[in-house]
Write a structure and sequence with these properties.
Layout lengths: L1 H38 L4 E5 L6 H17 L3 E5 L6 H7 L8 E6 H10 L12 E10 L1 E4 L8 H9 L4 E6 L5 H13 L2 E6 L3 H10 L4 E2 L12 E4 L25 E8 L5 H14 L3 H9 L3 E2 L4 H22 L5
Parallel strand pairs: 1-2, 1-3, 6-7, 6-8
Antiparallel strand pairs: 3-10, 4-10, 4-11, 5-8, 5-9
Helix pairs in contact: 2-8, 4-10
């Protein structure tokens, strides 16, 4: 009889413990749900600094869908394309850090614009909340078919046979393509004339037609009609197999890429920054997302916000030297 009472008490005790565990688990689950709802209680605006269809817009919409699923709120993409994204980026620095606004910026407005324009009166690492380095598109050396160059060595030989002169197109003053052109001309000893275009599409068309000699645009679909002789990254890239780097071609200093990163206004609470970073980092690890990005010409990166801050500092040091040497200002 005593044994039965002992076993009954033992069973009742474990039943009580189990019930506490279940209730505690449900309570914790409820707290997580409440926490998520309190952090993200309204639709989120995600700004793209390019027109619909461009790589910046594509990545913004792709990651916006993933963010929406992760936080349980609609994500509305707004395209603010004026002046290369500088006004849109500057406006974010003056907005409240409440988790309702994010922007997909790029290396141009983030790093280069403050070096060449007084209109970009901000410091990307300190006047915003860096969230994540999303991806990068390699800049590539395209050559007009009329030159008959199949390599960088062929290009240099062509220039030497034509008075050491080349015309270099670029998608705007102060863009990565413009600065890479300056680097290449200086390293190769070329007397270059620079022609600015409004975007990569007209630039590529003029390359194909022989109106300009070379260009260093960010790689994208539609460039297959023009010879691509090198990639301006330190290492070969998976999305362009078999294409040599500028370093392998004898120009180790001519490196650069166009990267895209997510920022929020200053003062964003750490828990929101961490949650958005985790959601986007997880998205960038998915095979489907990675495949779609790579097909569009953009290599996924991801990582903690500190990785983005480090990249800002590295690129600022690199491009500041080029800008000063060339004396570039657009005011």
């Amino acid at each position: 009889m005593a044994g039965q009472q002992t076993r009954g008490a033992w069973a009742r005790g474990w039943a009580f413990v189990a019930s506490v565990v279940v209730v505690s688990g449900l309570s914790a689950f409820g707290l997580v749900q409440v926490s998520a709802q309190s952090l993200f209680s309204r639709p989120i605006t995600f700004v793209a600094i390019s027109a619909p269809g461009a790589i910046n817009d594509f990545v913004t919409r792709l990651l916006g869908q993933e963010l929406s699923a992760a936080v349980g709120q609609p994500v509305v993409v707004e395209n603010r394309t004026a002046a290369g994204g500088v006004p849109a980026f500057a406006q974010v620095s003056k907005s409240p850090g409440d988790g309702q606004l994010f922007i997909m910026s790029a290396v141009g407005p983030t790093v280069i614009a403050p070096l060449i324009s007084s209109n970009a009166k901000y410091d990307a690492a300190n006047d915003f909340t860096p969230v994540i380095l999303a991806c990068e598109t390699p800049n590539v050396l395209l050559v007009s078919p009329k030159l008959g160059a199949k390599s960088v060595a062929d290009l240099i030989a062509y220039a030497k046979n034509h008075g050491g002169r080349l015309s270099i197109g670029h998608p705007g003053i102060g863009t990565t393509g413009h600065l890479l052109g300056l680097l290449f001309a200086g390293e190769a000893g070329i007397d270059a004339s620079f022609i600015a275009y409004r975007g990569a599409a007209p630039l590529t068309a003029d390359l194909a037609g022989g109106q300009i000699d070379i260009a260093f645009p960010a790689y994208g679909p539609g460039m297959d009609a023009v010879p691509l002789v090198a990639v301006a990254t330190p290492e070969p890239v998976a999305i362009l197999p078999g294409v040599p780097t500028m370093a392998q071609s004898g120009f180790s200093k001519v490196t650069g890429s166009t990267w895209y990163a997510v920022f929020a206004p200053p003062g964003l609470p750490e828990e929101i920054t961490a949650r958005v970073n985790a959601a986007l980092d997880a998205a960038l690890s998915k095979d489907d997302i990675r495949g779609r990005m790579q097909k569009a010409g953009c290599a996924p990166i991801g990582g903690a916000p500190a990785r983005l801050v480090e990249r800002i500092g590295t690129d600022r040091g690199k491009w500041e030297a080029v800008v000063r040497a060339a004396g570039i200002r657009i005011d």
